[in-house]
Design brief:
10 helices; 74% helix
């Protein structure tokens, strides 16, 4: 068994055994979908699009990004604090195998979240209609997972305790969710705040998924959102490689 396969299997087993975290990873964003679906049921946003076609992709993008940042941030901090990273460093296992295993697990979580979200939102009570090129959401999710995993590496490299991981991740993710329009249409915000949102990765994942699932934009718009996520992956990846630490002793 390769190092990548062993690390992926170990991460999967650890995730399945932690049933409380596993449950809330999926239930927490779903609760937001149900809540906003009930609040805005039967309403439409600017342009005549049904509110569920805006809300479902928005909450899904936030759920995917949140799961990546928190899971990778906590895992990296805990492995370094328990000196597991230093032990791995002393083996022939390259860093890319470690990151690839977390990326694979994050993709699995994102795929499961997407299936659950879409199934619930398609129920007649909520009434999601897949009016756009929904299949374009697949590369968007892959790029989104990659960008937010890189962000999680930055958070996990900065934090030394579980409390600091939660503080940093919440400080980043909660305001970003509101500014990116994950919970309500961003055209309700002042123009200068919409401009600020364009420097946030969640804006591009949210915007792209709304175009793909809700039918708001075309493939050209989705391509621009994919390019934005690639840029954020490179930026966060570069920062993570500069501040990554194998041990708290160094």
């Amino acid at each position: 068994m390769t190092a990548y396969a062993a690390l992926t299997r170990a991460g999967y087993v650890a995730s399945v055994r932690d049933r409380t975290t596993l449950f809330f990873t999926f239930a927490f964003p779903l609760a937001f979908l149900v809540l906003f679906g009930l609040i805005f049921q039967g309403q439409h946003v600017n342009g005549g699009m049904a509110s569920i076609n805006y809300t479902a992709p928005g909450v899904l993008s936030w759920g995917v990004g949140n799961a990546c940042v928190f899971s990778v941030g906590f895992a990296l901090m805990q492995w370094r604090r328990d000196d597991l990273l230093r032990l791995i460093w002393r083996t022939p296992t390259p860093l890319r195998s470690l990151i690839a295993s977390r990326w694979t697990l994050a993709l699995g979580v994102a795929a499961t979240q997407t299936v659950l979200f879409t199934a619930v939102a398609l129920l007649p009570f909520f009434g999601l209609k897949l009016n756009g090129p929904w299949w374009a959401g697949i590369p968007l999710l892959v790029l989104g997972v990659t960008a937010f995993l890189a962000m999680g590496l930055v958070v996990g490299s900065l934090a030394n305790t579980p409390e600091s991981v939660a503080a940093i991740a919440n400080l980043v993710m909660v305001p970003m969710a509101f500014l990116s329009g994950s919970f309500f249409p961003d055209d309700l915000m002042p123009g200068w705040l919409r401009t600020v949102a364009k420097v946030l990765p969640l804006h591009y994942l949210n915007d792209g998924l709304t175009d793909a699932m809700g039918g708001r934009g075309d493939l050209g718009d989705i391509g621009l959102d994919c390019a934005g996520l690639v840029v954020f992956t490179l930026v966060f990846g570069l920062i993570a490689t500069r501040i990554f630490r194998w041990s708290n002793r160094t």
